[in-house]
Amino acid sequence: MDSIIVRGNGPLSGQIPIAGAKNACLTLMPATLLSEEPLTLTNAPRLSDIKTMSELLASLGAEVSSLQDGKVLAMSSHDLNSTHADYDIVRKMRASNLVLGPLLARMGQAEVSLPGGCAIGDRPMDLHIHGLEALGAEIDQRDGYLYATAPKGLKGAEVNLTFASVGATENILMAATLAKGTTIINNAAREPEIVDLATCLRAMGAQIEGDGTSRIEVQGVDRLHGATHPVVTDRIELGTYMLAPAICGGEVECLGGRINLVSAFCEKLDAAGIHVEETANGIKVARKNGRVKAVDVVTEPFPGFPTDLQAQMMALMCTAEGTSVLEEKIFENRFMHAPELRRMGASIEVQGGTATVHGVERLKGAPVMATDLRASVSLILAAMAAEGETVVNRVYHLDRGYERVEEKLGNLGAHIERVKV
Ligand code: UD1
Questions:
Q1: Residue 165 CA, closest ligand 1 atom number
Q2: Span from the CA of 28 to the centroid of ligand 1 (angstroms)
Q3: From CA 295, how far away is CA 265, in angstroms rounded?
Q4: Phi and psi (nearest 5°) for 258?
Q5: Which of 118, 200, 254, 266 is catalytic?
Q6: Which CATH number is correct for 22-230, 3.40.50.300, 3.40.190.10, 3.65.10.10, 3.30.559.10?
Q7: In what order do the strands lie in the sheet with 138-142?
Q8: Which of 77, 147, 238, 409 lies 20 to 30 angstroms, CA to CA, from 391?
Q9: Pair 29, 75: CB distance under 8 Å
Q10: Cα(61)–Cα(15) distance, rounded to whole angstroms?
Q11: What is the pLDDT along the chain (421 residues), one digit of tens a residue?
């Protein structure tokens, strides 16, 4: 198993390319199941989660070819021969449940393993189920699986989500493209990944309006055709690398970044005293002198502050001047990084969904353990400005969501290397 060794050092400088969004790609890939014709994705990120989704699609009979060093995914679901998403794959990655809506819509049935809990919380699927049932699906839960059928085909309906779940919106949206009649999703998630999915589905012939707002309207069509679609920029990778110069000092340009993808996050950086500027090629971030100021953060669905940047923001707050309060409103157990940051000298109290961080002058390197994807990168960010050496163990979490992290940060001047243990 690999570890990452980081030696804290001074200011960073240079440019860092931001990849296509993991979370967008993981919902765009199952969209291939909706059509007999090929779907090609460009600007795909090269990550282990993408390989897992490729494996899952292949297990259903889809063909997935990874071209141009993984940046292009050419898919065809012409000859699907299974509707069974097995526990062995689903347990590795919760986003596997995104095959449910497309399989039901195209094949009239699906058996999808329930994902179970994960390090950051319980993560039920009730909203996905209620939405698909509203479209006429019959769904049974037994033996750890969802058995879904649509004996009379799916039919458009009004779906009211009690929470703006990203995954539920995606599953219902994909299913609705082939349902008969009109579907309206109220309280839909507004994340850029939803807009990207709707854009791709429209390129495949779907009729969708209102994506990016809380009310999405879909007119079902008889069939979808092939398309080529570029994956939107990864706003979480973007925010993560914007924090590198904020934590270590220096000036870095994140290539391909746009402020509208991360505006709530940029407001917090601004309040902390970090300079953020949109350029022709991306976003430039600079911290010149002195410590950053403590700011409070509440995670919310888009356009609010993303839960997927909370751990990294906490790493910044560890050495801020003053006390900051971080409130986690999306996942109940998402402070697993706090005890690890404490091992590096951070002063953090966690109570329920709230973490209070008292900024210290400097963190000290220590051996630490990655507990989930975003927690692992927060430890790397913290280590880059800490005194001495930090060894981050269990970095397989990191490879799920960040491509070539040591190379990208190393190019900015960070002292970071991967070792096989
Ligand atoms: C997606 C992202 C994940 C991000 C999250 C919130 C992908 C592959 N993953 O996850 O990185 O952290 O959005 O921005 O895109 N919930 C229910 N019932 C449901 C569905 C969700 O109670 O049926 C709850 C969840 O337990 C959680 C909250 O809703 O507390 C948000 O979940 P959701 O928006 O569905 O996140 P995901 O789509 O799983």
A1: 34
A2: 16
A3: 11
A4: -130, 145
A5: 118
A6: 3.65.10.10
A7: 84-85, 109-113, 145-149, 138-142
A8: 238
A9: yes
A10: 41
A11: 789 999 998 799 999 999 999 999 999 999 999 999 999 999 999 999 999 999 999 999 999 999 999 999 999 999 999 999 999 999 889 999 999 999 999 999 999 999 865 666 667 899 999 999 999 999 999 999 999 999 899 999 999 999 999 999 999 999 999 999 999 999 999 999 999 999 999 999 999 999 999 999 999 999 999 999 999 999 999 999 999 999 999 999 999 999 999 999 999 999 999 999 999 999 999 997 789 999 999 999 999 999 999 999 999 999 999 999 999 999 878 999 999 999 999 999 999 999 999 999 999 999 999 888 899 999 999 999 999 999 998 888 888 899 999 999 999 999 999 998 7
Domain extents for the chain? Answer: 2-19+233-420, 22-230
Ligand 1, pocket-test mutation among 118, 141, 166, most atoms within 8 A of CB? 166
- Alpha-carbon distance of 39 to 31, in angstroms, equals 8
What is the number of the ligand 1 atom nearest to the C-alpha of 26? Answer: 8
Active-site residue, 266 included: no
Structural element, H or E, at residue 300: none
User: Is any ligand 1 atom within 6 A of the Cβ of residue 124?
Assistant: yes
Q: Check if 53 has its Cβ closer than 6 Å to any atom of ligand 1.
A: no
Looking at CATH, the fold of the domain delimited by 2-19+233-420 is given as UDP-n-acetylglucosamine1-carboxyvinyl-transferase; Chain (3.65.10)
127, 163, 298: which to mutate for ligand 1, most atoms within 8 A of CB?
163
Please tell me if the domain spanning 2-19+233-420 has the same topology as the one spanning 22-230: yes
Q: Is 308 in the pocket of ligand 1 (CB under 6 A)?
A: yes
Q: Is the CB of 123 under 6 A from ligand 1?
A: yes
